[in-house]
Design a protein that fits this description.
The protein is an all-alpha fold and about 180 residues long. It has 4 helices and no strands. It is elongated. It holds the Pfam family DUF1003.
């Protein structure tokens, strides 16, 4: 039973076909068909159908609906090819569009990565420049060793100055005859 509107103040609307066309849905359908046409299952199925068609039309005299030149079979192949080629091209165009978008995304990611790398290289260079004036442990060790050597030398001199016994005079040089 049809459902009626209770609002009688407005005229009834006619049912109309909106005629909207969704290119994405059609594109997905075309890709699905193109993928199926490129499978081994389709080729095996088509081969079995052709062999069955030819065998039946050649040997079953009572069931011949397409005699020897197999015009109906050729017409079916022509129709299939007429629809398959544009569907395959549509699927390829959609794949090209996806590849192009992915290439743009990859290019953007590469640009950001390059900018980040350049930034990090500049930061690393500034850290190296800043560390050029910083004393390292090797520098400290060398300085401490020099101070230690100087203190030992000074200590030896001080010890020599505090010793009350003068050093023994050198032996006289022997005179030659």
């Amino acid at each position: 039973m049809a459902r009626r509107s209770t609002d009688l103040s407005r005229p009834r609307r006619r049912l109309e076909w909106s005629g909207t066309y969704d290119p994405e849905a059609f594109g997905r359908l075309a890709e699905a068909i193109a993928r199926f046409l490129g499978t081994g299952r389709f080729l095996v199925g088509q081969t079995v159908l052709v062999v069955f068609w030819i065998t039946l039309n050649t040997f079953a005299v009572a069931l011949r609906w397409d005699p020897y030149p197999f015009i109906l079979l050729n017409l079916a192949f022509s129709t299939q090819a007429a629809y398959a080629a544009p569907l395959i091209l549509l699927a390829q165009n959609r794949q090209d569009d996806r590849d192009r978008r992915q290439a743009e995304i990859d290019r953007d990611v590469n640009e950001r990565t390059q900018a980040d790398t350049e930034y990090l290289a500049r930061e690393l260079a500034s850290v190296r420049i800043a560390l050029a004036d910083v004393v390292t442990t090797g520098d400290l060790r060398d300085a401490v060793d020099r101070v230690t050597d100087a203190l030992e030398t000074l200590s030896t001199r001080l010890d020599a100055m505090e010793d009350p016994t003068p050093p023994a005079p050198p032996p006289p040089a022997s005179e030659a005859p």
